[in-house]
């Protein structure tokens, strides 16, 4: 593996999951693998889990990790080719990225979408410009349309939480939110579950909230949440804004928020969410605080997902 931007960079999904679970048992087994190497973690947007878990993962592999909050502390970056930089941007990625490529051995980058221009967001200009100009392996810490470290974490969490010999039923269900959020987590989760091909996968959302078919193809898609939840082993809750009429809020109907009553039709489903979550908007207190919620276990597993990916890059990058 040379870069980690989507599931397409990691054809051996099960190998990454198994490696992550080995690291969970023995975090320091490869403590010298990254000795003398340095990872730069660039954040154009806020983060708690991704930032800290990737730092810990790097340290477990013996690497130095340096965080740079570009959006807060850095010069405003320009990404467009042939831009006339007479506006607010101060430094072009064509200068910044190769310099970072000299400082670091691996670069992790977090960007968000504008949610204004679908074509630009789905071209992944920001992260692709870093890949083009930095000359070292790049790891997505969440991009405009995908969140692969989160999705790998999610499959790790499902694997360790499901002991039966059959395929689990996984339901991704839309939830209300007060802000227009990216489609990244839902796109990425769909992409990874479909590629993994070890689960029955159902997506439920209100009308007009269809995701890009290139990520969801293979899943059963329904606007009937109650029907979707029947017999579910895992329920993954997430809000996203509209994809077709891009970046809008068409629905804020609280009836889409999960309750323990709604979950009675599931197979005692485990509850998942990538976090952060808005309590009693996206997910009710009673569901988040129930013994079926595995959101803390899921967030803790971010370390092992990051460690599994970094170790692959260190060995093969
Ligand atoms: N799930 C996730 O990416 O969390 P952070 O935004 O805190 O990194």
Question: What does this protein structure show overall?
Answer:
- The protein has 317 residues and is of the alpha/beta class.
- It is 37% helix and 14% strand.
- It has 13 helices and 11 strands.
- α4 crosses α6, α7 (148-161) packs across α8 and α7 crosses α13 (302-316).
- β1 (38-43), α2 and β2 (64-68) form a beta-alpha-beta unit.
- The chain has helices at residues 13-25, 49-60, 70-73, 93-103, 118-123, 125-134, 148-161, 184-196, 213-216, 225-229, 285-288, 295-300, 302-316; strands at residues 38-43, 64-68, 77-78, 91-92, 106-110, 138-140, 169-174, 200-204, 220-222, 234-238, 270-272.
- It folds into 2 domains: 7-146 and 302-315, Aspartate/ornithine carbamoyltransferase (Rossmann fold), CATH 3.40.50; 148-299, Rossmann fold.
- It has a 5-stranded parallel sheet with strand order 9-8-7-10-11. A 4-stranded parallel sheet has the order 2-1-5-6, with helices on both faces.
- The structure holds phosphoric acid mono(formamide)ester.
């Amino acid at each position: 593996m040379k870069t980690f931007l989507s599931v397409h960079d990691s054809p051996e999904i099960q190998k990454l999951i198994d490696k992550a679970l080995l690291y969970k048992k023995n975090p320091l087994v490869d403590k010298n693998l990254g000795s003398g190497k340095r990872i730069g973690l660039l954040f154009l947007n806020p983060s708690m889990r991704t930032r800290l878990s990737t730092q810990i993962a790097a340290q477990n592999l013996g690497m130095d990790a340096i965080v740079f909050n570009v959006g807060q502390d850095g010069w405003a970056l320009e990404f467009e080719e042939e831009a006339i930089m007479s506006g607010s941007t101060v430094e072009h990625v064509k200068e910044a990225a190769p310099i970072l490529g000299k400082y670091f051995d691996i670069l992790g980058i977090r960007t968000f979408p504008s949610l204004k221009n679908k074509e630009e967001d789905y071209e992944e200009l920001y992260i692709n410009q870093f890949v083009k100009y930095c000359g070292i392996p790049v790891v997505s810490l969440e991009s405009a349309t995908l969140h692969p470290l989160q999705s790998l974490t999610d499959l790790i969490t499902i694997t360790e939480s499901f002991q039966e010999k059959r395929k689990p039923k996984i339901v991704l269900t839309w939830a209300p939110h007060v802000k227009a959020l990216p489609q990244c987590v839902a796109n990425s989760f769909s992409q990874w579950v479909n590629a993994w091909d070890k689960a029955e996968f159902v997506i439920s959302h209100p009308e007009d909230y269809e995701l890009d078919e290139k990520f969801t193809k293979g899943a059963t898609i329904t606007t009937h949440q109650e029907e979707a939840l029947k017999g579910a082993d895992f329920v993954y809750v997430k809000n996203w804004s509209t994809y077709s009429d891009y970046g809008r809020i068409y629905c804020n109907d609280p009836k889409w928020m999960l309750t323990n009553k709604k979950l009675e039709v599931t197979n005692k489903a485990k509850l998942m969410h990538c976090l952060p979550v808005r309590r009693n908007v996206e997910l009710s207190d009673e569901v988040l605080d129930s013994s079926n919620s595995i959101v803390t276990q899921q967030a803790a597993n971010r370390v092992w997902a990051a460690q599994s990916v970094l170790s692959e890059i260190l060995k093969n990058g």
